[in-house]
Design goal:
With 250 residues, the chain is α+β, with helices and mostly antiparallel strands. The protein has a single domain, classed as 2-Layer Sandwich (Ribosomal Protein S5, domain 2), CATH 3.30.230. The chain is 33% helix and 28% strand. It is built from seven helices and nine strands, in the order E-E-E-H-E-H-H-H-E-H-E-E-H-E-E-H. The chain has helices at 54-59, 84-87, 92-107, 111-114, 132-153, 184-189, 218-242; strands at residues 19-23, 31-37, 40-49, 65-72, 118-127, 166-174, 177-180, 192-199, 204-211. A five-stranded mixed beta sheet has the order 1-2-3-5-4. A four-stranded antiparallel beta sheet has the order 7-6-8-9, sandwiched between helices. It is globular. It starts with 18 loop residues before the first strand and ends in an 8-residue tail after the last helix.
């Protein structure tokens, strides 16, 4: 991306793409949302299993579990992306992202309060234009909060199991400039690429970052983290607006 080229629609370096949450898009799910960061769109849907993983039973671990699966639908990219089932297993990137989503949600959950059950969070990418993992984490929280609200309404939860909210955003260095929430064109040209997961109260959960055939300085690192904090505040506010007031973080 040339240095003088402006961001799409004149977006400021410290601005996220338009963020939207369309709730209840999967009627059979306990909670679901279509989360969009600009053109990137991910369906996040939560289903309930009244059991815990075998390892929890074998180790005598109490409480419940939250886990995630992630996939890019064949028509989410050009050219077409083959389904993971045709390979017999998810590719390495999909496994990495679904583990990130699961870790991020468990970081803000009280699994004891969830009870002996598993919440499965499926994240399916409808359209990919950069930031699918950050949209998946951010949308997954909204779907999870909706699901927990319905469990509470059914009398299956004695107390609220989510201690905080969680969201994720990318930041990077493109042509020497720190930018927030990279789209595909920016991500492809980035010298440095970061993904930052944070709680709604501003605590870091995970930071993923690397130089793409480049190095970065302390100053650039600080600039990207500052952008990420600003982006998380924007995303947390959008999540709060999308959820009923009685489902906000406690």
């Amino acid at each position: 991306m040339p240095k003088k080229m402006k961001r799409f629609r004149g977006r400021r370096p410290d601005a996220t793409r338009p963020v939207t949450f369309r709730k209840d898009v999967a009627p059979r799910a306990l909670g679901s949302v279509l989360c969009s960061f600009g053109k990137t769109s991910v369906i996040c849907a939560v289903t309930l299993e009244e059991a815990v993983p075998r390892w929890m039973k074998e180790q005598g671990t109490s409480g419940g579990w939250i886990t995630a699966e992630y996939s890019m639908l064949p028509y989410s990219t050009e050219p077409r992306k083959a389904r993971d089932v045709t390979r017999g297993r998810p590719d390495g990137r999909s496994q990495e992202i679904q583990r990130l989503v699961g870790r991020s949600l468990r970081a803000i959950a009280d699994l004891e309060r969830l009870g002996p059950r598993t919440l499965w969070v499926d994240c399916d990418v409808l359209e990919a234009d950069g930031g699918t993992r950050t949209a998946a984490v951010t949308g997954a929280y909204v779907a999870l909060a909706l699901a927990c609200g319905r469990l509470r309404d059914r009398g299956l939860l004695e107390s609220w199991p989510l201690r905080d909210s969680v969201a994720a955003v990318s930041a990077g260095i493109v042509d020497g400039r720190p930018l927030l929430d990279l789209d595909y064109a920016e991500d492809s040209a980035a010298e440095v690429d970061f993904n930052v997961v944070m709680s709604g109260r501003g605590q870091f959960i995970e930071i993923q970052g690397s130089g793409e055939e480049a190095t970065f300085s302390d100053r650039q690192l600080a600039a990207m983290l500052t952008l990420a904090r600003r982006g998380i505040r924007t995303l947390s506010a959008a999540q709060e607006r999308a959820l009923p007031k009685n489902l906000h973080r406690r």
